[in-house]
Amino acid sequence: MPSTILARRATTSVDRVLGTLERDLISGRLKPAQRLDETDLAQRFKVSRTPVREALKVLAAQGLVELRPRSGAFVAQPTDRELIEMFETMAEMEAACAGFAARRATADDRARLEAANAACEKARVAADAPGFYKANTAFHDAICRAAGNRFLAEQTLALRRRLEPWRRGVTWNPGMMQASVPEHAAILAAIAAGDAAAAAERARAHLDTLRRDALVLLRGLGG
Length: 223
Hints:
Elements: H1 3-27, E1 35-36, H2 38-45, H3 49-61, E2 65-68, E3 72-75, H4 80-104, H5 107-125, H6 129-146, H7 150-171, H8 176-193, H9 196-220
Antiparallel strand pairs: 1-3, 2-3
């Protein structure tokens, strides 16, 4: 069999394993500190251990997986300090997005923000945590889009993916949905008013709430 075909098949296998594991990590199906056994994963995906090993290396580079010498791969579980630092960085990046959005948002951008926040409110009233999580993601995506800075949006979304298990986890915390909706409304009002300073400060404060709850979640897991 030609080497190009073998290489293409290997790449396809790595991509398939990588894509599924990324979804499992981001959805919370794979829990922090959980061991990822190469043999078990190879059996699950019906591939050799090589594509699994390559996929785990990529996930490690993304910060989603930790590779420990002579111990194997584990779902990353940050320390208190690491989680605080990531959320601090996330807060500044989302604050920058909100500030730019206040200056640059179009009527379509504002409509997307209003629709996403309305969906958050609907989910809050229904006590629908999965629905709220989906609408909340759409709200933050809309802020990134409205910022009009593709590089900043890409970097913000990349860090958000790394923090996704923690953001998802705190959605189920008592009072989170009730607290988030008015915070979203305050951010939206500042963007609509074109007040960049207020939009940035309110986005920063909103992420600080998530940071505190995520830290509680981490400590509850023994981190």
